[in-house]
Amino acid sequence: MRALAALGVVAATSLALSACSITGASSSKALDSGATGTINVLLMKQAGYSESDVASMVKDFEAKNPKITVKTTFVAYEALHDKIVTSAPAGTYDAVATDVIWPAEFATKGIVADLTSKFPSSWKKTMLGGALNTSEYKGKYYGVPWGPSTKLFFFNKDMLAKVGATQDDVKTWDGVLAVAKKIKDAGIVKYPLAWSWSQAEALVCDYAQLLGAWGGTFTDAKGKLAINKGAGVEALTWMKKSIDEGLSDPASTTFLEDDTDKSMASGKTAMELNWESTFRDLNDPTISTIVGKAGVMQTPAGPSGKNPGVNGSMALSIGAKSKHPAAAWKFIEYVTSEAVQEKFVQSNSSDWKASYSKPSVIATNPEVVKAAATAYDSMIPRPQMPNYNTVSQALQVEIQNALLGKKTPQQAMDDAVNAANNG
Q1: Of the residues 29, 108, 255, 261, which has the fewest C-beta atoms closer than 10 A?
Q2: pTM
């Protein structure tokens, strides 16, 4: 999701959650019959669709489906995970908004229903590939994507131009460092790069994109964390190198996304990795000194030639003990449809490939839509592990240990793997 800086709080508080399983998952048969009644839907307050957007969707849906009434509840992102878990045994909510990092936990605990049988085979062609795996775990789907999101690469076009560089020169991470060195040597800014490398979920998101660029994945064939060899160590070594060479602001280890956003908007940073809304901020004259100077593109490629963005998307799932699963499915099918997502594209991006070739969609934010069209089709998921919160905490601590010079990248990754797989 776009408000991922808040995930560090969730990771810290969720460790104490009960690991008990919730039985009674909705069956495929239940999803196909009795699409009537009142459904309760739990959604997120910030980022993505606004409450007024959802109210409009509900109004239109109820007009088309008079036998179904929709009641919505909105909570802050920080409270969403815990509310889903604690309400699951009673079947309080028929449909819930779920983050991309939760399917493994929710599936193994039986908190949400398996919706695989409802996924048309055509979706593999018509839906963005990166978005499609938002709610996937072990080949099954536990929710329908409802707005893709990833980090994009932002750069100050004027600063690049001053050293004779263009967007083509920063299409690889090696190219980024080369341009950053030119900018630093020219005295344009002291630290050309800034990152969201505070000990929080934001750090895991940045590392994920670099891991993907180096051709790596978080887990092995057995689903165990395996970033202590090859790409996992190489990506972290590159991160530390950028600090050691004075190209990345050392204060990045205290920054969240808002901090990198503000640094670039104030003209202190030449390049950054951040969520889609950053482009809007960099062009807002009330908060930015570089209006009209920002460029945006898909994340640069690494030595592997790959450049996946981190998957920060959300989905809509059906509670395992939903009293009206068929009605919940009908609602989810409607609000996640191509037509409805395009109607509200100014609030959230579309999960459908065709949307990105439509003038009405492109016109809402041409630069970001162009970059996102390719970025959303290839996204790297964070570790799809039932104990994700424990894994994330281990990654945050150990990646920071390497960045701060407390451990070598190899030792840090060895310790992260040990903590995650034995925690």
Answers
A1: 29
A2: 0.82
Rounded CA separation 51/177 (Å): 42
What CA–CA distance (Å, rounded) separates 416 from 92? Answer: 37
Point out which residues pair with 193 in neighbouring strands: 248, 271
Q: How many CA atoms, within 13 angstroms, populate the side-chain half-sphere of residue 242?
A: 29
Whole-number Å distance between alpha carbons of 275 and 271:
13
- Sign of the CA dihedral with 196 first, then 197, 198, and 199 last: positive
pLDDT tens digits along 263-303? 999 999 999 999 988 898 899 999 999 999 999 999 999 99
Q: Which two tokens stand for residue 191?
A: 């630290």
Higher per-residue pLDDT: 378 or 262: 262
Kindly list the structural domains of the chain, giving each domain's residue range(s) and its CATH number in brackets, ordered by start: 4-149+313-380 (3.40.190.10), 151-310+387-422 (3.40.190.10)
Contact 182, 163 (CB under 8 A): yes
